[in-house]
Amino acid sequence: MQRDLARHRLLLRRGRALRTIEGRPARRSRSFAAVTATPPNRDGRFAPSPSGPLHLGNLRTALLAWLFARSAGARFLVRVEDLDPGRSRREHEAVQLADLTALGLGWDGPVVRQSERREHHRAALERLRAAGRVYPCWCTRAEIREAASAPHGAGGTGSGAYPGTCRRLTATQRAERERGGRPPALRLDAGGERVGFADRLHGPVDELVDDLVLWRNDDTPAYNLAVVVDDADQGIGEVVRGDDLLETTPRQLLLHRLLGLREPAYAHVPLVLGPDGARLAKRHGAVTLADRAARGEAAADVLAWMARSLGLAAPDEPVGLPLLLARFDPAALPRAATTFGIPLTDSP
Predict the structure, then answer these.
(1) Among 27, 101, 97, 41, which residue's Cα sits nearest to residue 231?
(2) Residue 197 above 90 pLDDT?
(3) For the chain, how many helices (H) and strands (E)?
(4) Mean pLDDT of the chain
(5) Does the domain made of 41-116+270-348 have the CATH classification 3.30.559.10?
(6) Residues 103, 276: Cα–Cα separation, whole Å
(7) Residue 333 and residue 106: Cα distance in Å, rounded?
(8) Residue ranges of the domains in the chain?
(9) Mind listing the pLDDT tens digit for each residue in 249-258?
(10) Deepest of 86, 122, 130, 164, by most Cβ within 10 A of its Cβ?
(11) Phi and psi (nearest 5°) for 218?
(12) What percent of the chain has pLDDT over 70?
């Protein structure tokens, strides 16, 4: 009898729940949509180092980062990566921001400077240290290059992968190096982990991660640690940058995972090369907005050249950012690098 009564009450509760759902289908539909249709976070950023003016390759990457974010209805942020006090200058930062403005690449919120976030970088380092993943390293760059080029070298991400020399030091050997007076860098014990991810343009990437530097011996946070912490704190959902940085991404993703931070998506875009086939640089001539202005070319001319080089505009077609947004399709972007030509009216 008690079992029958309990079963009857259960059926009544189910019936009330079913009638509630059937009588209010719109509410149920909205709730379901809120769960299943949440768009991925595509908030993006451009993060130059203020060591000089931006060249056209840098600016084209900034344009692409802006297009990726704005075409998804997402935020576009600017971060100044001024970790190197010997090369970073506020006057360079001002010129870089003025160049972005001249091209119409507006950003959301204040500009963030990495040099003002040292305590956040230090806190992440201490979390890794507490987890037993940090060790001191006294190796010079020459020693690392020599070890990596030896037979059965380090492997791992990048041609200068660290072979783990100082990780294997005994307590006595470490004490000897400490007495030498040269301050050590601090490295991540990566544990020989492989990290894979899917890049929007390059597809699957899978690399063995070496023991990367977390903190330099001049008491400065290393790029890979700082960029991971800052991207996470700024809520970056998709990192768009030059494909010369593709090989650093497994290192950064490992740090995201070890620190328990949300991982962004990645899109590594093709570079702009000089006439000699090397990555575009100041030595290639008139490669900045100021240089082009001195030749009588406006920011709109530079924007039009960028659009043509990306297959977003025809020769001699006037372009603006609204037109580029309407035509932008990440899947249709070229994968090969573009060779920069002078004058800009030349085809890429």
Answers:
(1) 41
(2) yes
(3) 12, 12
(4) 86
(5) no
(6) 27
(7) 22
(8) 2-36, 41-116+270-348
(9) 999 999 999 9
(10) 164
(11) -100, 20
(12) 82
